[in-house]
Each structure stands twice: as C-alpha cells, then as structure tokens.
C-alpha cells in the first residue's frame, strides 16, 4: 500500500513497482475516472466531488475498491493500492474484511513543492501524458500548443486537497503504525525507488521464509470449512410462536447466507433457496412479506460487500385484460424493495439494483442475480421469462429465493394450468443450496413433528422435535440423506426402521403423504 499527497510521485513509483514485482496496480483515481467516463450513476456522484476539489465519499470509493480486490488477478499476483485508504473509515473497512497490506509506504514531500508540482502540471489530451512547465516541459512546440490544465490543478483546489489529505493521513496512521515506512519523496525518482525496492525485497524474503506454514494453515482452514458446521448452533425452538423473534429470523438469514456463499464460491450458477418457516410459508395465514424481503436484503448486501454487482429481480404483472395479475405472495414487493434501507454506503443504485425478471434486465455489469419468489401468474407461465434471463446471464449466478413454479392463484384467483411439464423440467435445473422445511402432524397445524434441513454442500438432515420439561423442546437428529428424502424414507426414520427396508404404504404415518 502506498500513500502520498497529490503530486507526491505515487504514480511514478507505482509504475516502477509494478514493472519489477508484477503486482496488480489498483488506483482509486483510475477507478473513479473509469466510472466518470462511463457516465455511470456512481461516476456521476463522484464527479461532483472531484470538480469541487474534494475527496470522494468513503462509501463510493469503498464499493469500487472492494470489487477490484475480489478479482482473481489481484488474489493471485498480489496488489498495490494507490490512494486508498484515505480516511480512517476506509482503513477500518479493510480491517473488517481482513484485508491488510504487508507494508505501508508513505511519500513525504513539502507543501510548497507539492503545490508547484500541481499548478505547473499540464495534460496532453491526445496522448494522456503529463508534463510540467518547468520540471518536465514538452518535447515540441506542437505538443506545447495543445497542452491543457486539469480542472483540479488550480492552486486553490490543490491547497484544499492537501489539507484534507493531512487530516485523513493522520487518522490512518494509527491503523498501520507497525508496518509504516515514511520516505523522502523530494528526491529523484530513481533514488526514491531504490529505497522502496529494498523494503519490498525484504518483505518478499520474509514471506518466502514463512510460506510453508501459511500453506499448511490454509489447507487446515479449508478442511475445517469443508464441514461447514462450525457456525451452526442447532435448529431454534418455538418456531410456531408468531411473530418470530429477531433472533430466530437472524438465525435463518445467516444459515441461508452461509450456504449460498459456499455454493457461489464453488462456482455454482443455478441455485435455489427453499425455506418454509411460518413467516416464509405463503400457505399459512402468518406469512410475512417483510421477512422475505429482509432475507433477500441480507444476501444481496453480503455479496455487494464482497464487491459483486447484484441485481434483485421481482416479476411484474403478467397477462392482459381480465387475465392481468400478479401472485398474491408478491403483491407490493417491488415498492418494498425500492423503499427498504440498503445500508449507509449507498449500495442501492450502485452495487445493488432492483429489476424485473426477464432477459432484457440482464446488463453487462451485473455479476449475479437474486430472483424473489418467482412463480406463475394468472393464465401465464413465468418459465419463458426465467429462461430468457438465465440464458442472458450465462455463467453468472442466478439464485431463486423460494420459487413456486407450479399452479398458483394470482391476484384475481385464477389457477395457472399450462406448461406443467415444461415448468417442472426447468425448475429441476436449479440446484438446491439451502432447504428447510417443518414437518407437521396434520397439514400446517400445531404441533411440529420435526424438520428437514440441507445446507450446501451437506446432506439432507432429518430431525424430530422432542418435548422437554418444563415447557421446553429440542430437535434430535434422526437420519441423513444424500438426496431429498421421500415420504417413505421419512416415515421409516421416525419409526426407527433401517434405511432401504421395504415398507408398506399403510400405517399411522400416512399423514405425511401430503407433506411434499
């Protein structure tokens, strides 16, 4: 990581570092200018601050830098951060993500030298090359005639930027005290680089000497992660108490998120989440649309925090005239998403966008798509729009949250009856990354009999609910299955029969015939 005031020579030193060490150069200035030139929403916001000679707000820069650090080249080759972090908040955001440099280099140059360097700078609009009227004049009169002064290189703006830089640099220093190396930047570039080269060479030697141990630690970490059970505390109790407590909701949000992240990180691209706790089961009168929206928000924000551009999609009204309508479960969903709180750093509109289901909604900059409870509407089938979207998405992840791709009533109460085989075939192409279903003795009535849970990449786990005194309960594991268990397999497990033993269809457990 390298830091320095405007015109301190960071750019020159970064070029020399990248040339010798092959690091990925990540410059916040380049990232910002790319957004501005592309005319994106985030670029337009950044331009307002840049034109005023002010630093761009943390939330904008953090979102861009996080996205760049998450790319594969930066992970493999290592990275050189230039111009970031520039505030205590930005430094802390990296610390929270466990992103910490091996060394923090600060180029120190007197203010009067910095002002002279900035005010005297000239830009060649044809080649993009930077000159200086005294220190580095152009090679010819032709070039000299076309040189321009950048809008942020006036003395007033330079002084303003210097003052802001000093304040933020002081705040950052406490975060990187143990790895900070301050160098005199008011020397020839070759001399400055010699000092930097010596520092980086030593860092490289130290990392090489310790390389065996980190490799072993990484393997151990992956082995632990493969179990994927380290954070699970067991199924929460009192799931029929409505409304659900915040603790119960957060449990399921986190459980779904962990499974989804594992699947996406392993390259799975067609995923579905199925969860039917009472507040997320539209067949129960306690169904709560807000709980579904909170779940979607948790997943979207988590991937956005990792630098992914997430598009959250809800199907719109389908059909025409008397057949126009929307499934009751989705009524008002789009407006709820638009007005939800999407965090303090401006994620909505930048790294999270709200859209509809369909091929035309897929933009090149989208990294992944979360589809909220896609289902069939009045006299129409959502499958065509879904397939168009997944075709356009290509290898990018598409995640269905509580899909219901079967005949359902729409807003006007008419059943969808067309294309059943087509719907079932397409629905089967999505891999379950999370499954949770409560089992009841009769329909969806109290009491709860047990539960089935699956989190990617683990097996399906069958649990039995057991009453304890006084007024307590717990979920006891009965069996595991590599595939979603059938009704007979569930019956056998509750009856204590061994797996694969032939079972007659009759018996007191026949009530489960309607569970699936």
From TrEMBL:
Q: Which GO terms describe its molecular function?
A: AMP kinase activity; ATP binding
Superkingdom of origin: Eukaryota
Q: Which SUPFAM superfamilies match?
A: P-loop containing nucleoside triphosphate hydrolases
CDD domains in alphabetical order: ADK
PROSITE patterns to which the protein is assigned, alphabetical: ADENYLATE_KINASE
Q: Could you tell me the EC number(s) of this protein?
A: 2.7.4.3
> Subcellular location, in the record's words?
Plastid, Chloroplast
| TM region positions | none
Do the record's keywords include Transport? no
What protein family does this chain belong to? Belongs to the adenylate kinase family.
Q: How does it assemble?
A: Monomer.
UniProt cross-references to NCBIfam families, sorted A to Z: adk
Query: Could you tell me what this protein is called?
Result: adenylate kinase
Q: Which organism is it from?
A: Corchorus olitorius
